Amino acid sequence: MAAERGRPYRGDSLTVTFDAGRCIHAAECVRGLPRVFDTGRRPWIRPDAAPADEVAEVVRRCPSGALQYEPADGTAEPADPVTRVRRCADGRIVVRGDLRVSAEGGPASHETRVTLCGCGRSGNQPFCDHAGPCDPSRPAGPPRSPETSDGDRTVT
Predict the structure, then answer these.
(1) CA proximity to 101, closest of 114, 87, 89
(2) Bridge-partner residues for 37, per DSSP?
(3) Tell me: the pLDDT tens digits for 117-155?
(4) Do 108 and 101 meet the contact criterion of CB atoms below 8 Å apart?
(5) CA 83 to chain centre
(6) Residue 126: exposed, middle, or buried by beta-carbon count in 10 A (0-12, 13-18, 19+)?
(7) What is the DSSP track for 121-150?
(8) Mind giving me the DSSP string for 44-101?
(9) By Cβ atoms counted within 10 A, which residue in 7, 14, 25, 71 is the most buried?
């Protein structure tokens, strides 16, 4: 990985990295491939426990980008061909595509998936860290948008 972020978990066919500071606990990984992603085991990520294409597909489900992967041949994780922005009812902003993201005053990083803070309370700006109304332990409020029943909006 050009700029390795998070802890690397190396396998024969690909390396998966995990950035705990970006994880919003969507659990796409543990539900998608529990034999690879098992939080009760150490190391909790074992990339060789499933075919590389299956591991890559599950990593791409991670909405925050906390999980990333790089095949052993050094190619980059492909970005979605169309940039998509979705504001969730709880305020989070989920973005997928060929992205450049920077914190105030910091350098831009290349990303393919991010969940951005929509409330301004995150201690990991511009990323969401569940510090505000998106905190799953808080009671849910009414949807923010009348356009859909769950309050999500998608811009493509």
Answers:
(1) 114
(2) 45
(3) 999 889 889 999 888 877 776 655 444 333 333 344 444
(4) yes
(5) 15
(6) middle
(7) --SSTTB--S-STT-TTSPP---S-TTSTT
(8) SB-GGGS-HHHHHHHHTT-SSS-EEEEETT-PPPPPPSS-EEEE-TTS-EEEEEEEEE
(9) 14
Q: Residue length, the chain?
A: 156
Residue 72 and residue 74: Cα distance in Å, rounded? Answer: 5
Question: For residue range 38-97, what is the model confidence (pLDDT) as tens digits?
Answer: 999 999 999 999 999 999 999 999 999 999 999 999 998 999 999 999 999 888 999 999
Distance (Å, whole) CA 91 – CA 93: 6
Residue appearing with tokens 């169309």: 82
- Contact between 45 and 6 under an 8 Å Cβ cutoff? The reply is no
Handedness of CA 147, 150, 151, 153 (dihedral sign): negative
Distance CA 116, CA 125 (A): 8
C-alpha to C-alpha distance for 27 and 21, rounded to whole angstroms: 15
